[in-house]
Amino acid sequence: MKHFFRSCLAVGALLAIGNPATAQSFDWKQQDGQTLTLLLNNHPWSQAVKDLAGEFTEKTGIRLRLDVSNEEQFRARLTTVLQARSPDIDVYMSLKPREGAVFAKAGWYADLGPMLRDPKLTAGDYAFEDFGSALREA
């Protein structure tokens, strides 16, 4: 997706939104004015993103456009958008055990490691190790 780079920054910022120490050394507003479209399944994680969207926009200047639907509609739309290489979405949910091999082969996943290591893209106190090892390795 054409905005994948920007999307990863936004997701990283969303995950670390509550840490005020980072605000002193990291430019949270470097993408101010941008809009990200998220295609999400109706899930507790999606609700959490929805609940934090206003705080995220206030901190980063990035607006979130959320497209949330039930499982069947979500999967049909996601597959269509990805196959068309459409710029209509920037971030999407994925269940690696279900579609991971197909999505990886199609080039619909990216290695986030370089972005996580870049201090201009990821706040210095972002603790990737806080995620379980199985998730990190996936």
Short note summarizing the structure:
With 138 residues, the protein is mostly helical.
Discrete helix count: 7
Query: Biggest β-sheet, characterized?
Result: 3 strands, parallel
Integer count of domains: 1
- Compute the CA-based radius of gyration: 15 Å
> What's the shape?
globular
Element pattern in H and E: HHEHEHEHHH
Please state the second-level CATH architecture: 3-Layer(aba) Sandwich
The portion of residues assigned to helices is 40-55%
- Order of neighbouring strands in the sheet with most strands: 2-1-3
Distance between the termini: 20 Å
Enumerate the spans where pLDDT stays under 50 for 5 or more consecutive residues: 1-9
Q: CATH-wise, what's the superfamily? A: Periplasmic binding protein-like II
Structure, described:
The protein has 138 residues and is mainly alpha-helical. The protein has one domain: D-Maltodextrin-Binding Protein, domain 2. It is 49% helix and 12% strand.
Give the topology:
Layout: H1 4-15, H2 20-23, E1 35-41, H3 44-60, E2 63-69, H4 71-83, E3 91-92, H5 96-106, H6 113-117, H7 133-137
Parallel strand pairs: 1-2, 1-3
Name the features:
7 helices; globular; three-stranded parallel β-sheet; 138 residues; D-Maltodextrin-Binding Protein, domain 2
